[in-house]
Amino acid sequence: MADTSSARAQILGGIRKALGSAEGSDEARKRLAVHPRNLVPARAQLPQDQQVDLFVAMATEVAATVERLPALGDVPRAVAEYLAGLNLPAEIRVAPDAALDAIPWNERPTLTVSKGRARDSDGASVTGAFAGVAETGSLMLLSGAERPTTLNFLPDTHIVVLTRSQVVGTMEDAWDRLRGLGVAGTMPRTVNFITGPSRTGDIEMRIELGAHGPRRLHILLVED
Amino acid sequence: MQPTTHAFPENARKALSDERLQKVLAIAPAGFVNRRKQAADRLPEFEALRDQGRDLKNHVLANLDTYLEAFEAKVTGQGGHVHWCRTDQEARDAILGICRAANAKTVTKGKSMVSEEIGINDYLEANGLTPIETDLGEYIIQLRHEPPSHIIAPAFHLSKKDVEGTFRQAHTDLPPDRVLDDPKVLIAEARTVLRRKFQQADVGITGANLMIAETGSTVIVTNEGNGDLTQILPRVHVVIASIEKIVPTLEDAALVLRLLARSATGQEASAYTTFSTGPRRPGDLDGPEEFHVVLLDNGRSALLGTEFQEVLRCIRCGACMNHCPVYGAVGGHAYGWVYPGPIGSVMQPALLGVKEAGHLPNASTFCGRCEAVCPMRIPLPKMMRHWREKEFEQGLQPAAMRKGLGLWAWFARRPALYHAATRMAVRALGALGRGKGRFAKLPLAQGWTQYRDMPAPEGKTFQQMWAEKKGKR
Question: I need a labelling partner for B114 at 20 to 30 A (CA). Which of A167, A183, B306, B406 fits?
């Protein structure tokens, strides 16, 4: 790999000369350590049950679909019926995520279930989520050994299992939750905020769904 | 890409007589304007967020070295690589070096204006690689060998008919009698074709809307999901980003993101906002094995401490061009290089020099709409005025204009004489133009009257009225 250290020295040197200081500022170092919040809009600063309603409303607005379920045990039925309702094959690729282990897939033998990262042939995926952000109706998904990112993008249909307690108000709240995990809360390779299915407006400014990512985003919002 | 910015007057004339382009420009910018307004109106805190965005980026620029070093340490600490590049050539070489080391043949690309700035596609092609743009708009214009005409909607200038023609020419392995009359069908075709490319790619290049010093993350914001497939499928992920894209923390990223989507497309949030941090972790089933950040300066650090420093607050949302009457009349290609619209009129002289790009800051009505909508409150008209001053200082304007300005300055420094002369001129012009009320031609002002009439002055001069008004108070 080419050595870019002289470029580095020259760029940083130029910046320091223009700023008139080579020390770096305590203010900046403090900001990195304390990561203060900026102005956070009032919209999502609500009691949690209202945040859940806001999340559903915002996600629906961006063409995601949301179904509320009483328990994880209802997920197999809901998935099967959702796919059948769209005339899609009853085959799903599921994230090998421990959080989804409690889902009794075997109660629905007509549903073909396999686990792993997405392959090109997979039509539908089922993943968990780390959080739902009420302010924008966004899902926050973290990559990891149990959570391959390809499941979020390759299949035509992405089904996400989100529990009620995972809904937070804002992106800032979600970052706090991630940091709250300690070492486990260091940034994973990929953090996806997903707000509705894939779309494009690149031809004559008309919004069409399903550009490169999923054409459908279905959220199963489960009570817990 | 060889700039044609010096030819702006000819480019603009061509654009104005291009009926096809004029049809597109008559409709498209209004859509962006309306959507932005609705999104801004819906968020009561929007104006206050703009103030904070401005203050945040000012703070970043005042501490740029600290944040860049913190970012680098985090990237490296997580197994990534940072390549510092002073110039476009250094950045091209860094990327080619990464591709060569990876034995790459096919390179997929997410949308990135900095990659246009360094002209990476032509360079990779000239060196035997196959770069493939995957953003739908970028893909279309790559097939047509055209530059983007808008920073967030690269194929802004094209109709679906144009796209149909382009796809028929490019996708020759598909049945020639297929129907392609609907954007839906065109999008589906591009999706199928590009899926194969995503799978073939050895290296994926994306830009970065943000870099985060606290975590060493880079952030992209897309609606299609192409930027994600570009970075999670190939073995190597390269991020090309310019130094001013850095923000301190995840909280600061949240602030900028609230401003970005609303200002760009009028969305509450783009479909995909993705934070990428280092290569894949042990045990991960997918994601890139290598993570490289190519950090480009290319003249930006030289703007620090100058009257142009504030332009480095730009987050590339495109709102300024969507609201610009000049962009709305001539479109993006007339600007002759990568950045069109008001931001281009300030950035291009900085990156290309006043000699090449001096026309752009002159092609402004100074209506101020760009500054009024800029999420980072960049005083774009003021900076265009500064570029005009530079142009004058460097003696780049035509002799007649310099002489005229010199003459005017001579009068302006002698107020009594100036007032007397303007009073006389106004009276004379008023008398001459009394019949029609306007002039179709005026000596010394043909350039102006060629395109519009000059109204005949009526009544008194401004200075006279001002004096009377003051007298009354």
Answer: B306
